[in-house]
Design brief:
Layout (H helix, E strand, L loop, with lengths): L7 H15 L6 E7 L2 E3 L2 E4 L4 E6 L5 E5 L9 E5 L4 E5 L7 E4 L7 E5 L1
Amino acid sequence: MKTTTRHAPVTTALAMTLALLATPAAFASEQVDVVGPTIFPPEIAVPAGATLRIHNRGDEPVTIVSEPATGDGAWSVGPIEPGQSKEIVITPELVRTYAVQGGWMKPAVIKLQ
């Protein structure tokens, strides 16, 4: 029996789609909410490559910064206006402790899964 290759592009596309869906971080996203100096939840598990959405539910603009705010892997997001969100893709080299800039709260923690 002769094998045809007419279905090869469809099979390849299907295999690629299934591979992407099997990758946990392919479409993963998590959200934290900020109200004043408080980040909720204070600890979150996020796979590397996933998007972390930071939503400001407070009345003032906020900026989220890594702790420490300088050096390798340091990052910041903001200012984020009230009612708005900003996103950051979590990579293994990012510092994974963060806080509301100028806030008095205990820093929150991102844990890589």
